[in-house]
Protein 1
Amino acid sequence: MATIYEVSELAGVSLSSVSRVLNNHEHVSEKTKIKVNAAMKQLNYRPNSIARSLASNRTDCIGILVSELHGPFYGDMLTGIETQLRAAGKHVIITAGHSDEKSEKYGIDFLVNRKCDALILLVDAISDQDLIELSHESTPFVLLNRYISEMKEKCFYLDNILGGYLATKQLIEQGHKDIAYISGPLKKQDATERHEGHKKALAEFNIDYNEELLYEGDFLTKSGHEGMTYFIEKQLTYTAVACANDEMASGAMKGARDHNIAIPQECSFIGFDNVFFTEYLYPQLSTIHYPITDMAKMSTQWILKNIYKKDISNIQNLFIPELVLRDSVQSI
Amino acid sequence: MATIYEVSELAGVSLSSVSRVLNNHEHVSEKTKIKVNAAMKQLNYRPNSIARSLASNRTDCIGILVSELHGPFYGDMLTGIETQLRAAGKHVIITAGHSDEKSEKYGIDFLVNRKCDALILLVDAISDQDLIELSHESTPFVLLNRYISEMKEKCFYLDNILGGYLATKQLIEQGHKDIAYISGPLKKQDATERHEGHKKALAEFNIDYNEELLYEGDFLTKSGHEGMTYFIEKQLTYTAVACANDEMASGAMKGARDHNIAIPQECSFIGFDNVFFTEYLYPQLSTIHYPITDMAKMSTQWILKNIYKKDISNIQNLFIPELVLRDSVQSI
DNA sequence: CTGTTAGCGCTTTCAT
DNA sequence: ATGAAAGCGCTAACAG
């Protein structure tokens, strides 16, 4: 592998000149530029990014930490980030935190040691406190899907309360009064907020909140199925089920079908997130759109602006969910 | 950020000694080990991976190039690789090639420049020839979901012909004789092979292959829908549809339902890949299991063995697909 | 077992 | 506009 030194020799210029054309510095004569480029081509020169990083203390890499690499939600997010960053000539290093505190910390450590210029974090096991401390350290970072008031300008988050509210409100407006709710783990911020929105809608329409109609799942399909089975076996009264995400909604729908409950004729369903497979379900799932791709892109914009000093305006931190109507809700 | 130099000073030993304990070299006295570790802790020392890579010419990073970051298939693959590698203390740099030749080449370039120790490539736009040439260059790599005879020990691939065969055979055994086929892009190896398997099954049961019943899609949901619509509008005769992947199968099923065709009573469906959402579909989709996670892990094993000289045996290159029976095929 | 020394390939002052 | 020289933080012979 040719080095910058060999290039300089072949081109008959100094190291520095080669480095300058490499980095598009101004104040380089057309002549040397041409000589250097020719030499590079001839030697099939490829800059060594490691050496460059060591010398410049910049890696052009953004570290991404997501909970999981699979799953529709994270996939869309990663794609959003990667396309933006690539367009800006920056790169991503991706790692997974598996919603486990140790694992998340390990992942952050790795990315920091890797000398990423900045991080985009989607974490839910690490505490606010740890994150705030981390923000005083070297590597800057932004938070996706999380709000911490002490560093709110670096948070990109959804109005989850509004989302939960919109879902239940839609159900109510279609005539439903007895609404079961399958929640995410209530120790997680987003799960709590969505549930809060649900209760807010009930309150607004003077419907008493019934604790019995709450099932706490874990955001995975299976727990949706379990929740639905639980409601059915307890023989509770309800005409609709609101779910804190689409995976659980799909599980719940399957649970209903296992018991020969017609959807939406006998029971309506609404999800949350609007992941791609909501359209594949039968009936197609009404849900709340979570603009994760836009949010991922926005967090990237923040980094481009603040870390790489690109000229970018209109940074938006709060995102608004929207109702998506499909076929899983019946008017009664 | 403390450097190795400061550590050596505080510990009262030389640079090399610090480096040695850092790298778990043998021949270091317990005493210095303790001194050094204490100094490291006191200074909150973190090794600079960039400097280390430059000096050692090793990054402990594996570059991954996939077509897309989203989608069930790639997600499972990435998870398989990342967990394996992390367990071995290695790391991944992930980038996307978008099934576009330029983009794939650019991605490989990036990973090579980044000095990855090895690459895992899932590419379908780059030619065999280019890949063979690349294999003569510096960074070693393996290929997922692709077979090139010149480098077959570095290929990890599925018997797609068998998969296509199994799917159609299942349909035939359930009494279907007129079987429509929605294929992937026939310029792609896996699409062709799956289709070949389909024809092989027909031939084995003495069923004439009917060119009219072939629709060439692009592996995406929408083209499955289009294919089904095409068959319906042409008013062709068929009792079952075999699809070259699950996404297209889901689209096709939706197409059937749009025309009030009962599934599976009036038309049976079978997919390919066994991605997670096949269970969410209604009816649940019968399909061919593609052990992508296992394959991804195996490719990782190859790297651990050949690049990092770990003691690993039983490297397997060819993987066998399996029929997964659910509810989308009706016996007639 | 430990220390000395020479780089790894590049960026970046500072002169010229 | 260009060149010389000093590192970036670490590893890896080599010598002792």
Protein 2
Amino acid sequence: MSAANLRARVRAEMTEEIKTVARRHLATDGANLSLRAVARDLGMASSAVYRYFASRDDLLTALIIDAYNEVADAADRAAAPPATPLDRWLATCHAVREWALENPHQWALIYGSPVPGYQAPQDTIGPATRVLLLLGKTLGEAYRDGLVDVREPIGASFESELAPIAESFMPDLPPRAVADTIAGFFQLCGAVSAELFGQLNKSVDEDRRGFFEYQMTGAATTAGLTA
Amino acid sequence: MSAANLRARVRAEMTEEIKTVARRHLATDGANLSLRAVARDLGMASSAVYRYFASRDDLLTALIIDAYNEVADAADRAAAPPATPLDRWLATCHAVREWALENPHQWALIYGSPVPGYQAPQDTIGPATRVLLLLGKTLGEAYRDGLVDVREPIGASFESELAPIAESFMPDLPPRAVADTIAGFFQLCGAVSAELFGQLNKSVDEDRRGFFEYQMTGAATTAGLTA
DNA sequence: GGATTGCAAGAGCACTGCTCTCGTTATGGC
DNA sequence: GCCATAACGAGAGCAGTGCTCTTGCAATCC
């Protein structure tokens, strides 16, 4: 290993360490992450952190990308065949919910209100769409296998807007099914956020998982997926 | 008007003025509201604001309660009869969406990620449930008028958890319909948040209203409401 | 061996929420 | 009408923040 490579590796390790400590702070203090506090925890001056992240927003962006990839990884693992498409759809949703319950602050970071003044850079949109594409892939396989109650186009304007998306990213799906996928994904995010942000308090307290599955089954049904 | 009342009125006006300026700051700077900046705009010392709000969180709470009531008022106006229950359901959803589009930062305040360290006091839960109860009321009227495809209990555990809620707040609805109402409300919040927080960028750009209506119609259908 | 580069530390700026103290002003009881 | 009381606003100050700039050190390259 060359000296340059060693240098790069040390730098990467330091970067990772900063992110780890930042994540820990995120878990206790929430989204108003203090760069100085992170630096203190690492035993270094706050200015030193700026060698690794140009700004606090840059650090947040790194955490956001990691979070997107973490949920998506969890979803990928859960959606592995063999299983019926509906089972995989539900497994995906459950995996996302469980990851969110385990990492509430990271969930808030990516699906909560955007940090004020923070503009998500291009690097985030790839990881951000992974779960959506996974749901689309599952539905697409069901379409291919004839396991879906095929639903007619409705002729709405948004349907034609979705046609290019369908073609590029979900080639197995007609535009309306892409709409259903997006709607299902939004429903997933909405259900998880609502549970996480306390909107469910004092109504469903015990069987939250069951209620969640009920909702996600509904989303699948709306998409024509029943098996 | 007695002197005491005058004093109270001046105080109420000042309180309102602070909230107005704070709302304006919210619209430009987002949720990290600066008390000092608000005070500067009002031409007074930052410490003076503390005569009216014990802390920044208290000010935020006041804004949150106002925001809940504002959406709910808009929803109430939109849901006024005469119209079919489905029309009123959709009108409620559209009103909520439109209010959110006009007041994105206030929406983020109430339905985005909770402000770190901020614990919502009891005063907020009343206003917070108004839109949900309105949806329940609309569905309940449809039930009473026999306009709903009555759906059988599914015997899930969350269903019995919802029974007391049904009895106290939505007496016209069976527990499963309460679940559908809550699910619909979550779907509403999810769809609005997703659109507002930029998850829809570069997929549906023109006919967002149409896509939103498609989703909310789906939620109504799931609840058995088709007319 | 000397020049260059990457790194860390420290001081400092402008800002934040919040507290405390200090005069001022208005209110309510006598 | 007088006077104690309470409400109010201003200012200073504390501890904390993101971020920048300068300085010194150490490793790397030629």
